[in-house]
RRM domain-containing protein
Amino acid sequence: MYINSHQSHETLCQESFRRKKETKEVKSPSERGLCYISHIPHGFFEEEIKLYFSQFGKVTHVYIPKNREGKMKGYGYVEFEVDKVAQIAAESMNNYLMFKRLLKVKYIRNGGKKWRYLKNKENSRPIALRNRDQFVKEQNKTKSPSEETRLVKKQRRSLRRLHADLSKLGIDFEFQVDSDVPQLETESA
């Protein structure tokens, strides 16, 4: 490329940047590779994992779940830009001794269940917590009178069964039920 007197250095840089951007291929998540890592030693955090696994190829994302105190749970996921690189990394790093611990690395195919953690960061909340929130919303919603009577019948039936099981064992115990529970007209003894 020759520099004309009319073109400045800045325009040439912008032009070359534009060409690089056009030729750059963006890999879709289905073309990327994912590795599951377990037995991660303490002190081997996201940044260290990303730097260490970048020797195999470009690492696009690292996810290491933590508990409520913020401590690592001991496993995680590494996403590579190329699927073959993930396979090679899993083969070579499996049973690798690091900080007196054997690192276990498994390649996960694109259809793996754990892929959902890396699709977007907003959805990285564990599925159990999302299900718990949905369950709490369902339990706390206002119920119609027919739903409430159905639940009361179910609770009383459960208490009667529990009382019968305890009496078979020779334990005489009466349960106290909240007084604000509505009395049912058609309750069978």
